[in-house]
Every structure is written in structure tokens, then in C-alpha cells.
Amino acid sequence: MSTVYLIGIGGSGMLPLARLALARGYSVWGSDAKLSREAVADLKKEGIYAAGPPSAGRIDEMEGGLVVYSTAISESHPERMRAHELHSRGKLRLLHRMDFLNELVAHAPLRLGMAGTHGKTSSTALAGWMLMELGKDPLIIAGGRPLYLDRSIRNGEKVAVFETDESDGSFLRSNATHRLILNADEDHLNYYGGFENLQQAFQEFASSGTVIYNTGDPGLIPLRNSSLPLEGYCIYPSRAECMQSDAFLAGYFPDQDDTLEFRIRRHHLKSASNDFDSAVPDPGAQNGPASNAIAESNPGITGQPTSEFEKSEEEVFYRFRLGVPGRHFASNALGILGLVLLAFDDLDIQKCIQALESFPGTERRLECLGT
Question: Are 91 and 118 members of one domain?
Fold first, then answer.
């Protein structure tokens, strides 16, 4: 059994990593000066051996193992200094948390990485839920706890879903095969030195893998102007603008509620086997007002789309309404749907939408605590 020691194990990015490492068969140790005795005891019950104050002596016991640190751990931290010394002598391995995450998810042939200044945790949780409901056995690691999991991680084999971290530039080392860029806002400027440098970093992130991004986000305008082979999604003010868009997924809000209608440009997909039309129910059937995927064309058309109608996919609209409120979250959900459709070529669109609509939510992210 391999041993890993995480410096700052109690951090929001490190604790999920520790739990995933445990699930992947590691013996997990660590330290964090902010851990209480109660927290240390709780982690021990999980099988994770953590201590409070750091000690360089504990690193000596890790010879032959792996030590992991985050950017929050300064180079002058006693455990990191000792680990660096032993690493330079070939006594142990020393990795940044992003590089260790890459190792933990490398077994999955499909790796879905979430990027953006806002919304990564809830988007990771939603993508993981959707893939679970679709039977894809996802590995999930999020910065907060999805309400459908006891912890913030789920071990899986076929596909991995995880957050990437733009705050320190480490997301540029991600091994994600499929990437979703939600937005870019003026944050982490102490690291980047200016918003333009942050935008450039997102553009570099978008230069690898299959990428879908929010074409309507002002901070991502450089991606729109680039020559990179990217897919896009966007929510427009009106149906007319939605119809005119060449984005892979384009949506709009027909009413004042949180129901989103969208259409899919199927020619963007690598395979024509996505069963979009067969998943569309009869608009005249007795379905809930927003609980099913609904296809719409011109007024008066009923029943399943005809062959002629199928050829004009831009006229086919679907609808979903999420349990989590807010248009920003609906926009992120549209991006997640696009990401999953690009990653898999065997999906039923109605089942995808049902999975989106049944999402339980994420702890402390617009979580419903009562009525």
C-alpha cells in the first residue's frame, strides 16, 4: 500500500483529495495547524491519520512515500522544507496537489475538468450527479459536499469529474480530456498581476482537450476571438437570438420563472447516434409543466418530429427547470449538458434532462434548509 502525507490536510482542496486517495487505496496521513482534536478524531474514524501542529520529524517517517502540498503552504513551512530536502536526495516524492489529483484520476479514460472564477463546485456536483444517473460510474471530487454524497468524493472508474484551480495557475497542468469554462472574472489578480493575464491563462487552458465555454460571458471574449477549435453554449435574451446562434447549445428563458428552453446543433457532435428525437415526448401528452423535455417548433405542430422536421434541428427546442434556483446556475447546467454530450455518444437527451432536473444540490450553495 502506498503512503501519502498531505500538508494542510484540512483545507477545502486538500481534504477531498485525502479522502479520494484513501478510496483509491492509499494509506493517508497529514497535518494541519487549524485542525481541532475533534476533527483529528473524526478523520481517524474515516481511516485518515492527521495531526494538528506540523512537525518536520513526521516527514522523516515518510521516506519512500509521497508528500503533497498546496500553494497555500509556503516554502518556509517546516514540513515542506523537510520534504523538499528529502525529495532532492531521492528519499520521497513531492507533488503539488494538482499533480497528485492528475495521478488519482489518470485511470479514467474520460476526465471532465471544471474551470471558471465562479460555480466550479456546484457544477462539479451537478455533472457528477448527472453521470451517476446515466449509469457512467463517475469518480467525483468537489470542493464542497454534494448533497447526494456522504463526503465530497465518490470513487469511480469510467469517468472522472473534478474542479480545476485557476487561482495559482495550476489548472494549466490539468490532464482533463474534456473541459468546461464557465466564466472569467477579476479575481486572483495578486497572482496574475492583471485581468488580461488571467484571461490569457484561460485561453491556454482551452488549448488542450475538448473544450466548451460560455460564449456569453464578457470575461471570455478572448476565447470568442481566438482560432481555437472550441464549442460554445450561451443563454440569449430571446428565442430569435437563440435561433440565430451557431453555438452548440443555445437557450433562453421564455417566462419569468427558472424554466430554460434550449436547442442543440447536432452537427457539432462527433457521432450522430445521440438519440435526441426519439427522446422527445408528444407535446400534447399529459406531462408536468416543466418536468419533461419538450420539443417545440411552429405553433400547431404536434406529435413526434417528422423526417423533414428532424433535418431542421435548430427548430427543435427542449426544456428543463432545475431544483436549484437562479439563471447563473441554469447557464452552468447548460454548459454541463454540453460537456457530457461531447464526452459520450450514446446518451438519451430526455434522460439527461431528467437527471439535471432531479439534482439534489450542493451543501451551502443555495441549499434549501426549510420552508
Answer: no
Closest CA to 69 of 27, 103, 26, 31: 31
In terms of domains, do 138 and 94 share one? Answer: no
192: alpha, beta or left, given left = phi > 0 and alpha = psi -120 to 50?
alpha
Name the grid cell of 248.
452548440
Does residue 110 share a domain with residue 41?
no
Domain interval for residue 70: 3-102
Contact in structure between 124 and 163 (CB atoms under 8 Å): yes
Give a yes or no: residue 260 inside a domain.
yes
* Measured distance CA(95)–CA(115) in Å, rounded: 21
In a 3-state reduction of DSSP, which class is residue 324?
A: coil
DSSP state, residue 160: E
In a domain, 23, yes or no: yes
Contact present, 254 and 237 (Cβ < 8 Å):
no
**pLDDT 10s digit of each residue in the chain, 371 long?**
799 999 999 998 999 999 999 999 999 999 999 999 999 999 999 999 999 889 999 999 999 999 999 999 999 999 999 999 999 999 999 999 999 999 999 999 999 999 999 999 999 999 999 999 999 999 999 988 999 999 889 999 999 999 999 999 999 999 999 999 999 998 899 999 999 999 999 999 999 999 999 999 999 999 999 999 999 999 999 999 999 999 999 999 987 677 899 999 865 554 433 333 333 333 333 333 333 333 333 222 222 332 232 334 446 899 998 888 788 899 999 999 999 999 999 999 999 999 999 999 988 544 445 55
Task: Check whether residue 120 and residue 245 sit in a common domain.
Answer: yes
Which of 52, 79, 102 represents a domain boundary (last residue)?
102
Identify whether residues 127 and 98 lie together within a single domain: no
Tell me, yes or no, whether 363 lies in a domain. no
3-state secondary structure of 240: helix
What burial letters (b/e) apply to 162-189, b meaning 16+ CB within 10 Å?
bbbbbbbbbbeebbbbbbbbbbbeeebe
Same domain, residue pair 160 and 34: no
What number of other Cβ atoms are within 10 A of residue 211's Cβ? 23
What's the domain count of the chain? Answer: 2
Residues 283 and 302 in one domain: yes
